[in-house]
Amino acid sequence: MAGYTTKENAIVQNKNNNIFRYIAAGIIFLLLVLIWPLSLFQTTDSDINNRLLKEDDSYTYYYLSSGEYITTVLKGDGSYIDNGAVRLRFQGQVPQDACMHYYMYDPEGNMVVDQHIDLFERPENDVYQIPFGIVMDKGAGYQFIIAPDNDFTVGVYCLGESTEPAVVMHSSDQISSTTPVAVSGILKLCIWICGLLCIGMLIGSAVFESKAKNSCLFDTKAFIPAILSLLSIIVYGQYLFDHNIESGEGLIKGAFFVVIITIMAFMCIFAGRFKLLIYGFLILAVGSIYILTFPAGSIPDEVNHFYRAFSLAFGNLQSVKFSDTSVGSVLPTAIQALSDPEAVFDFADTAQIDFNNTSLYAPVCYIPQIIGIRIALLFTGNVYSVFMTARWAGFIGAFILYMFALYIIPAGRELLFAVMMLPMTIQEMTGVTSDGMTNAIAFLFIALVLKKAVSDSDLSKKDLVLITILGTLVGMCKIVYIVLLILLLLIPVGNTSGEGNDHHSKKSDNSRFTYGIMFGIPVIMCLISNVFFGQNLVSNGENMEAGAQIKYVLTHIPATIMTVIRSTIEYGMQWIGEMTGDYLGQLNIRTLPVVTLVLVIVLIVSSKNIRLPKELRSVKAIWIYGLISVFGFLLILGSIYATWNTVGDFLIRGIQGRYFLTILPVFGMFIAALSSKGVNDDNDGQLSYFYDYHIGSYILLVINMLVIVDVYTYIIMNG
C-alpha cells in the first residue's frame, strides 16, 4: 500500500541510517588524522608577511618614478627589529640594475636605516626584506621613506587609498615566540575534542537510539552542535593565523575563543534545553574579550564618557560651562593619559577638561561606571586601572539587566539575544559609554511590558512602580527613546467586559489613572532631566543651533521630508553596517563585508521565527510596533539634525547606526507580528532547527570571533 511503512522496511531504513552514521564517523576521524598529526591544517607555518600577500580593499599600489618617494611613520614597541618587509609591483620594462633606496629617521632626526636594495633577482611574491638592525623605542615614531634609485616606475603596496607603504617588521622576539606554536596546539586539541564528540554522537545514535527513544541525547541530530563547533574552529583557526600571526595578543584571544566554542559544543548537547544559561555564557565570554581587546578610548566618545562619569563620581551632577563653546569639568590632568599604564591621578594637579557632547547625559547612564570608579580609587590611583574597572563595572551592570530581560520576555527571546550579540551592541556594552546602560534598561523595559501584556493577572502596584521607574530611566538616558512608552498600550489595565455601568465607569477611571502614571511620570521626569542637564548646551559648530533648526523644520516640512528620504538613501546601508557589525572602534575598523549580511539574515530569521501570543500579534500590537519604529527612527534623525547639522542642511549628517539598537527589538516584533505565527502554530518549517540546535548562537559567536580578528588586524596595521 502506498505510503505504508512495513516493519521490515523500517528495519532496512534504520540499518541504512546506521551505515551512514558509521561512514560519517569514519570520515570525521580521517579528517582529524589529516589535521593532526599529519598537519593538513597549517597554522604556525603561516607566512609572517601574509599581510603583504592579501590583495583586497584594505590595500592598493602607489606607483613611483625617479625623483619621487613615499613615506610612513612606524611605531616602535621596544623590541629589536631585524628587518622590515615591503611588497612591490613592476610596471613596464625595469632595468636589471634597478635599485630601491630605503631609509629611516628616528624621532631626533638621526638616520638609523640607509639601505639600497637591488630589485633583481626578484624574491617570491615580490616581497623585499630591508635590514634594520635597530631597537625601536616603545611608542616612538620613526619616519620610513622609500624611493627609486634609478629611472624606472615601480608600485609600492600601500594601506587603503593612502600613499603610506605597508611595512611588516620582523623581530627576534617574534621569531622565537612560542605563542603561535602553543595556540596552534590548543586549536588542534580542540578540533580533536569536537571531532571525537561528533564521532561519539554518531556511533551513540546508531547503537542506543532504538533503546532510548525518549532521549534526545543519542538522536542523530544531537551531534549537530559538535559538528558546528568542529567546522567553526577549522574555519576560524585558519582565518586567525592568516590575519593575526603578527599579534601574540590576537592569537591568545583566538585561543580563548576556540576553548569557548569547544565548551559550547558540550553545553548545547548536554544542556541544550537551558538556553538562558547558554545565552548568558556567550554574552559573558564575548564581552570579556571585547573589554580586553579594544584599546582605551577607542570606542566612540569613550574618552568623553569617562570624563563625564569620573566627574559624576565626585558628585558633580551638572557640568561647568567654561565658555559659549566649551563645557566640561575641572579634573585631574592625568585623566587625559588613559592609555599610559604609568599615569597616576594627582588631585592637586587639575585642568579644565572639555566634554561638550557628553555633558548633557543624566547620571543614570553611568551608575555602574560611577560605582566602579569609586571602588577602584579605594585601591589604586592608576588611571588605566580605574578606567578598566569602569569598563568592567559597566559591562557587569548591563549584563545583569540583559539576563533579567532574557529571563522575563514572554516571546522573542532569540531575537533579543541576537540584538544583544551584535558586535556593535557588545562594543557599546563593554566600553565606558552611556549606550550600554541605555540599551540594557530599554531591553528590560520592553521585556517587562511584553510580559505584563500577556499576563492573566492584573497589573499590581509593584508592577506599576517598576514599569514607571524603567520608563522614566529610559527617557532620562536619551529623550528620543521616550517613544518606547507607546508600548505600554499593550498592557490591558482596563478590562471591563461583563460589568455593570457603575463598575465600568470606575474601572475606566482606574485605567486612565494607571496609564496617566505610566506615561505621565516618565514624560515629566524626562523633561525635567533634560531641562536641568541641558542648561549648559552649547553649539557644536558654526550655524548649528537647535532652536533655529527646529524652526526651519516646522516651516519647511516638505523640504525636511525630502531631507529624511535623501539621507536614508545616501547613508542607509552604512547605518545598517554601523548598527550590526561594521565601522567599529571610532568608526574606523572595518570588518568582513559578509559580517553585516549574515547578521541581517540572523535578525530577519529571528524575527520571522517568533511565536507570538494573540495579545502580541493583534492589529493593535502591529500598529504599536510600527509607530514606535517609525517615530523612533524620525526622533533619532531629528535630534541629530537639530544639534549636529547646520540649519537647513539638505542631508542629515552624523547619524550612527548604533543609535537604532535600542528600538531594534520592537522593529523585530513588528516583523514577527506581520508574519502572524502564533504560539499554537505547529508549522515551523526548517526555522525551528535554527534555534533547537543553537545554529543561530553558533553563527553569532563565530561572527564575533571573526570581528575580533579584524580588530587585531587593524591594530597590527595602524600600531
From TrEMBL:
InterPro entries xrefs: DUF2142_membrane (IPR018674)
Keyword vocabulary terms for this entry: Membrane, Transmembrane, Transmembrane helix
Record field: transmembrane: 20-41, 186-208, 220-239, 251-270, 277-297, 360-380, 392-409, 429-450, 464-493, 513-538, 589-610, 622-644, 656-674, 695-717
Protein name in UniProt: DUF2142 domain-containing protein
Organism annotation: Butyrivibrio fibrisolvens
